[in-house]
Amino acid sequence: MEIKYGERNIAEGQLITFPNPRVGRRYNINITLPEFTCKCPFSGYPDFATIHITYIPDERVVELKALKLYINSYRDRYISHEESANQILDDFVAACDPIDVTVKADFTPRGNVHTVIEVQHQKS
Fold first, then answer.
1. Which residues contact 56 (CB under 8 A, 6 or more apart)?
2. Which residues are catalytic?
3. Spatial distance between the Cα atoms of 98 and 104, rounded to a whole number of angstroms
4. What pTM, to 2 d.p., does this model score?
5. Low-confidence ranges of the chain (pLDDT < 50)
6. Which residues pair with 101 in a beta bridge?
C-alpha cells in the first residue's frame, strides 16, 4: 500500500527553527495545537488533547508547520499523558533553547477523568 504524502511528511517531521528576528527583546509566543492525539500505553485507546506552548525565544524560533507535523507524529505512539508532555518539552528545548517555555497538555476527559499536565523549563 502506498504511503500518503501527509503520512510521509509526518514520519519525517522534525522541529525546525529559524533565527529570532528580535534577539534581545523579551516577548511571548503562544501556540495552541488543538488536535493532539496519542494512544494509551496500557489500553491502546486513543487520547486527545489540546497542547498549549508558551515560550520566550532566545536565538531561535520554532517554525510552525514543522511543529504541527511533529505534534502529529504522536498519533500512533503508545505514550502516557505525563510522558508526552515531558517529551514535547524536551524536544522543544533541544530544538530552540528558549529563555523560558511552558508546555500544557489538556487532555479530553475519558472515563470521568480530566488530566492536565503542565511542564516548564527556564534557561539557567
1. 26, 27, 28, 29, 98, 99, 100, 101
2. 40, 47
3. 16
4. 0.94
5. none
6. 55, 121
CATH assignment at residue 32: 3.30.1130.10
Give me the DSSP letters along 47-64: EEEEEEEEEE-SSEEE-H
Instruction: Report the C-alpha gap between 70 and 91 in whole angstroms.
Output: 10
Q: Which range marks the domain in which residue 90 is found?
A: 5-122
d(C-alpha 122, C-alpha 124), whole Å: 6
Check: CB of residue 124 under 8 Å from CB of residue 103.
Answer: no
Give CA–CA dist 103/80, Å, rounded.
15
How many domains are there within the chain? Answer: 1
Place of cell 534581545: 24
Separation of alpha carbons 19 and 40, rounded Å: 36
First-last CA distance in the chain: 49
What sign has the CA pseudo-torsion 41, 42, 45, 51?
negative
Residue 3, pLDDT score: 84
State the greatest distance between any 2 C-alpha atoms of the chain, in Å, as a whole number.
Answer: 50
